[in-house]
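In keeping with the milestone schedule agreed at the kick-off meeting, the structural modelling team has produced records for the first pair of proteins. Each record is given below as a sequence line and a structure-token line. The laboratory manager (R.T.) confirmed that both were archived under the project's standard naming scheme.
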Amino acid sequence: MSIEFADSARRHFAEDRLDERLVLDAIAHPLWVAMVDPDDSSVAPPADTNPPTILMVCKRHEGALEDDLIELLVSMPRPGVMRIFHAMHLSGIWRDYWNTYR
């Protein structure tokens, strides 16, 4: 599987102390994964979007504390390609979603 980073994925890297390597490592060990509608967090998983959009909740790094979490929004624009378009600390919207549906 090929992994691409959209420019928008890097928007919060500096403020959240993230980089591509940390995100790739986090993807390897997600705490929770669900198909979501990124424009409507009221839609319960699995959301039916085209292309599919996946929310991944991950620890920032392997030794991170339990509350040091990041959210990743990933699309699958074509077979064999994972495109990360959002990466940042776990925000209130997606934290509430995760707590509701996990």
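The second protein of the pair:
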Amino acid sequence: MPAPILVETEPLDARRRFDDLSVLSETVAQGSQSPCVVLWRTAQALSVTRSEARLPAFAEALERLDLAGWPIVVRRGGGSAFPIGPGTLQVSLLTRKGVPDVDFDRLYDRLAGLVRQGLANLGMPSRVGEIANAFCRGRYDISVDGRKVAGLSQAWGGKGAVVAEASILIAADVRGGAEAVNRFHALAGSDLRCDPQASASLVQLAGIAAETAVDALLAAAKPIAEDWAADLALPNR
């Protein structure tokens, strides 16, 4: 069956969205759903890693940030804390172990290519590489004019599920998100800190409407789904 594109842009509760994505990824891993591309949004939240959930004062950070309007959701992928919400678009590639040509670097390259093509559709040249002092910095940061606009992560599950995900700052309050990230690290007992100026939203940089950016990324996702329908299709069972 063809690899579909699923669009779920209503900003629902973050934990619900992550749970729904986990169920879908397991369905893909079991072979009853083909690999797919999912574009989705959540209500405001702070996405943190499993390793950060083991920080000495994580429970206190969880409670205090929830009261401040930043509920914490623990993701399976790597990196570090990243703010998500209605102004952030999540793009997830869902596949499974054993599908031909699926490996760590190839998935990152596909996903980075999708995001960069979406930015090119908006007339925004971009580059891939770590941005110093950005929240959740990593070698697959995507930047425009030297400021991070998207971050990528991956999770390979024990049951065969593979999820590569991009968090894209469309119309996010970057300063407010960075402050929440820094507060989380301080409360939880981490030495990590970020600089709000190291990141920017697409709306901030280009003065475009948020939905224009979403449409550009959706257009960029279509060739990925078509490619997967051709060369990443599930084997017959």
